[in-house]
Every structure is written in structure tokens, then in C-alpha cells.
């Protein structure tokens, strides 16, 4: 029974890895195209156009990395602030 469970975990892990690679390639391509198109519209210099394309590619890779980290359970998410129910008072006031 435990061997079947281990095989299922390996298959699920491989599926997540394939899904993450696919997501990374797609977001890299789409965000690069969006950055390149924005560079054509907004900038005149070829250097800034390439910088816009590189920024788009980096944004795509970063968003894919964040989502894949969530799938593998390594991303803790946003930390929540603890709010106490009792009000904070200054010492010495009566």
C-alpha cells in the first residue's frame, strides 16, 4: 500500500514539474512579447526597447516562479499581522 502511495506522489511531483516548466515558458514568451510591444510604443532608443523586453521577460519568469512555489508548498504567502483584542495603554495612567 505504501509503495502505491509513493508512486502516486512521484507521478504528482512529475506532473507539477511539467506544469511549472510549461507555465514558465509560456509566461516568459508572453511577457517578453508584451514588453517588446510596449518598448516599440513608448521608447525610441533600441537599448531601452531591449530593456523593456528584458523587464517583461523577468516579470514573466518571476510570476511563474511564485506560482510554482505555491504548487510545491514552498511559498509561505503573505504574513498576517496579529492584532490583539486589548487596547494598548500608556503606563502610569489611572
Automatic annotation (TrEMBL):
Primary location: mitochondrion
Transmembrane spans: 27-43
Gene Ontology CC terms, in alphabetical order: MICOS complex
Membrane topology reported for the UniProt record: Single-pass membrane protein
Family annotation (InterPro entries): Mic10
PANTHER family registered for this protein in UniProt: MICOS COMPLEX SUBUNIT MIC10 (PTHR21304)
Record-stated family: Belongs to the MICOS complex subunit Mic10 family.
Protein name: MICOS complex subunit MIC10
Amino acid at each position: 500500500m505504501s509503495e502505491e502511495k509513493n508512486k502516486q506522489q512521484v507521478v504528482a511531483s512529475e506532473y507539477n514539474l511539467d506544469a511549472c516548466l510549461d507555465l514558465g515558458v509560456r509566461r516568459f514568451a508572453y511577457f517578453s512579447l508584451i514588453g517588446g510591444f510596449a518598448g516599440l510604443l513608448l521608447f525610441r532608443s533600441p537599448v531601452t526597447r531591449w530593456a523593456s523586453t528584458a523587464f517583461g521577460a523577468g516579470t514573466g519568469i518571476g510570476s511563474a516562479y511564485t506560482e510554482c512555489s505555491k504548487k510545491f508548498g514552498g511559498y509561505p504567502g503573505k504574513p498576517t499581522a496579529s492584532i490583539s483584542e486589548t487596547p494598548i495603554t500608556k503606563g502610569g495612567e489611572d
